[in-house]
Amino acid sequence: MNQHYGTTGIKHGLAVLLIMALEDAQHQRPNLHYISSQATPPNISALTDAKWLRDLLPVVDSKVYEQVRALLNGSIAVPGGLVDGQLFDDTAKNLSLILRGLSESYHARYASTADDGLTLWDPSCFPHPSTWRMREAIGALLA
What we know:
Elements: H1 3-20, H2 30-37, H3 47-50, H4 62-73, E1 75-78, E2 81-84, H5 85-110, H6 131-142
Antiparallel strand pairs: 1-2
């Protein structure tokens, strides 16, 4: 593996994890099932899919997407543990919690108006109203 592809793999893998971290109103992560059930990322133009950032999946390197999907539907033992669908689910949940914690703690400490701060997740609105912020961050990883 060359250095460029290794870097691309890391960036694209992190982008997919962030896409999987998006939650619905019941704190479920529908992109996990979506990715595990799609052999290849479809070309998406529907607004309902774009709000879940699924329209970015065709930009993900096809080998990275294929590896993520294989691990969601299977497993591999690595030093220190097992990588499988449950680990992806736990990781997506933890990423969402961490980002929500960063958002809420920053907002509580530094915001002076309701629109200030690093508000990423609004607990009363799903999917996250921060879709544009997530889209920008994920787009940077996929660039």
